[in-house]
Amino acid sequence: MQLRTLAIAALAAAFALTALPASTVAQQNPEGPRVTVKKQTTKKRVARPARPAGQIACTAAGCGRIPPNCYPTPGMRWDGMPSGFDVIICR
């Protein structure tokens, strides 16, 4: 218990020593603390050219844009039933 009391006393003393310089600075400057304001800097945004609207196809590998000179067709399973995916055919 005595060790705990000693530790609390040491922490209180350390806190009092760290708070001391702040109070002496306030007494030395009667106008109050000086505040410096940084000038706000902004970055210019560069506008990127928009991509032309193209077709999107969902294949078994995922959905994505179709390359130029290509078109999607419905995919079929081996038994002739639609698979639910598109097949991309390029010329």
Explain this structure:
- The chain is α+β, with helices and mostly antiparallel strands and 91 residues long.
- It contains one helix and four strands.
- The chain has one helix at 2-28, and strands at 56-59, 62-65, 70-76, 82-90.
- The strands form two sheets. Strands 1-2 form a two-stranded antiparallel sheet.
- It is elongated.
- The protein starts with a helix and ends with a strand.
Spell out the helices and strands N to C: HEEEE
Gap between N and C termini: 87 Å
For the largest beta sheet, what order do the strands appear in spatially? 1-2
Radius of gyration over C-alpha positions, nearest whole angstrom: 36 Å
DSSP strand count: 4
Structural class designation = alpha+beta
- Overall average residue pLDDT: 78
Taking pLDDT < 50 over at least 5 consecutive residues as the criterion, the unreliable ranges are none
- Helical content class: 25-40%
What is the 3D shape?
A: elongated
Largest sheet, strands/sense/barrel: 2 strands, antiparallel
Q: How many individual helices?
A: 1
Please indicate the percent range of residues in DSSP E strands (runs of 2 or more): 25-35%
